[in-house]
Design goal:
By secondary structure, the protein is an alpha/beta fold. It contains 11 helices and 14 strands. It folds into 2 domains: 58 residues, DNA polymerase, domain 1, CATH 1.10.150.530; 287 residues, Aldolase class I (TIM Barrel). The longest helix has 16 residues. It starts with 12 loop residues before the first strand and ends in a 5-residue tail after the last helix. Bound molecules: iron/sulfur cluster (SF4).
Length: 367
C-alpha cells in the first residue's frame, strides 16, 4: 500500500524544504528583490537562524510578514536519549502528531546525522521495530532537511568559529524506505548538498534502501552521485522473502544488476548491509553465498550485529561468530567489516524510541 503524502502545509511554507529557485518564487509573493531569497537562505543555512526575528537586516514589518506566511523549523524535539558513547537519539514530532527518529552519531573524525524518510516504514522487516506498525505517511523534503539541521545545531551548539565541530555526514538510514518517497527524498538531498544549502558533499551522503530496482536506476540518472547502501540481510531469495516480506517480488539478481548500473553511472561503490541474526542468517554457508553475490559488484559488506528488540524473536550473535563470518567473506576476496553498534543504551535499534513513546499512548498491551 502506498504511503500517504506528506501532511499538507495548511498555511505556512516550510523554508527548509525549498531550493533557491523556490525561495525566489516565495520572495516574489512579497514583491521582494530576488537577492532577498539568497539573503534569507544565508540566514537559514549559513548563520543558523531559528526565527525570523533574528534576521536583523530585514525590516520588522517584513519579518512579521514572513512569520505569518512561512516557518523555519516545523517540528518539536519531544524526546531525547543520550547514550554513554555520545550517540543522541531524537524523537521529532510534527504538528500533525506524527513522529520520527533522528540520530546524531559523533565520531573522532566525523559527525553523522542518521535521518528518516517516512513516518514508520512500509517494508516490515521481521527483525525491526519500525516495521511493526507499517507506514503512516511520507515526510516532506522540509521535514527531511529539518532533521539534518537539528542535528547540525546539536553538533555546533551555537559555536560557528573556525575550529567548531561540524556536521559532516548524512545517512538516510532511519525510519522508512527512502526510495518509496522518491521525489521528496531527492529534493531534500539537493538542498542538503547545495553549496548555499547545507553544503554537504555527495560522497558524505548515503542512502540506504531495501531495494527498488527501477528507483535505483532512476537515482543513478539524477547526477547526485551519493553513496548507495543496499540492505540485503540474506544471501538467497527464500530467506530474504522470510526476513523482508516487502521485497518478495524482487529477486536478488535484479537488485544486484540495478546496483551494478548505479556503480557504472556514478562511480560510487555499493555497500551491502547485512544484519547478523543469530542462527538465522549468520552460518558459514550464508557467508559463502553472500560472498558469491558480493563478488558480482564493486562493493563493501557491512556486517551489523543485531540489536534485540523486545517482543521480536531474534537474537544478537556473539562477537566471535560475527568475526568468523567476516573472515569467511575476506577469504573469498570480499571487503567486509563488522561495524560497531553505536548508542545501544539510547534505544539504538531503529524504531525503538518511537515505539517506546507510542506504548504509553496505546496502552501497556500494545504490540
Ligand atoms: S529495517 Fe529499515 S527497511 Fe526494514 S522495517 Fe526497519 S526501517 Fe524499514
Amino acid at each position: 500500500m502506498a504511503a500517504s503524502p506528506p501532511a499538507s502545509d495548511t498555511q505556512r511554507t516550510h523554508l527548509l524544504g525549498q531550493t533557491l529557485d523556490e525561495m525566489r518564487a516565495f520572495a516574489a509573493q512579497f514583491e521582494l528583490e530576488p537577492y532577498r531569497a539568497a539573503q534569507l537562505r544565508a540566514w537559514i543555512f549559513q548563520r543558523g537562524a531559528t526565527a525570523f526575528d533574528q534576521m536583523s537586516d530585514l525590516s520588522k514589518t517584513l519579518r512579521a510578514q514572513l512569520d505569518e506566511r512561512a516557518e523555519l523549523y516545523r517540528g518539536t524535539i519531544t524526546r531525547q536519549t543520550d547514550a554513554a558513547d555520545g550517540v543522541a537519539k531524537l524523537l521529532i514530532t510534527w504538528p500533525d502528531g506524527a513522529a520520527v527518529e533522528t540520530v546524531w552519531i559523533p565520531e573522532p573524525d566525523r559527525h553523522t546525522a542518521c535521518i528518516s524518510s517516512q513516518v514508520g516504514c512500509p517494508v516490515g522487516c521481521r527483525f525491526c521495530a519500525s516495521g511493526l506498525d507499517g507506514v503512516e505517511r511520507n515526510l516532506s523534503a522540509g521535514e527531511i532537511v529539518e532533521q539534518a539541521m537539528r542535528v547540525r545545531r546539536l553538533v555546533t551548539r551555537g559555536d560557528t568559529g573556525a575550529d567548531a565541530a561540524r556536521l559532516s555526514n548524512v545517512v538516510l538510514m532511519g525510519m522508512g524506505e527512502p526510495l518509496a518517497n522518491y521525489e521528496q527524498v531527492v529534493h531534500a538531498i539537493r538542498i542538503i548538498m547545495a553549496p548555499d544549502g547545507m553544503g554537504i558533499s555527495a560522497r558524505r551522503i548515503t542512502l540506504s534502501t531495501v531495494g527498488l530496482p527501477a528507483q535505483i536506476r532512476r537515482l543513478a540518472g539524477e547526477h547526485l552521485a551519493i553513496n548507495l547502501a543496499l540492505s540485503l540481510h540474506a544471501p538467497d531469495d527464500d530467506l530474504r522473502r522470510e526476513l523482508i516480506p516487502w521485497g518478495k517480488g524482487v529477486p536478488i539478481a535484479e537488485l544486484i544488476d540495478a546496483c551494478r548500473e548505479y556503480f557504472d553511472r556514478t562511480g560510487r561503490e555499493i555497500t551491502l548491509e547485512y544484519v547478523l541474526l543469530a542462527g538465522v542468517n549468520d552460518l558459514p554457508a550464508h557467508a559463502l553465498r553472500l560472498a558469491e553475490l558480493a563478488r558480482r559488484l564493486r562493493c563493501n559488506v557491512n556486517l551489523l550485529r543485531y540489536n534485540p528488540v523486545p517482543t521480536l524473536p531474534f537474537e544478537r550473535p556473539s562477537a566471535e561468530s560475527a568475526f568468523e563470518f567476516q573472515s569467511i567473506l575476506r577469504r573469498q576476496g570480499v571487503n567486509a567489516h563488522v561495524r560497531t553498534s553505536r548508542g545501544r543504551d539510547a534505544n539504538a535499534a531503529c524504531g525503538q524510541l518511537r515505539r517506546a513513546s507510542l506504548v504509553p499512548l496505546n496502552g501497556p498491551g500494545a504490540a
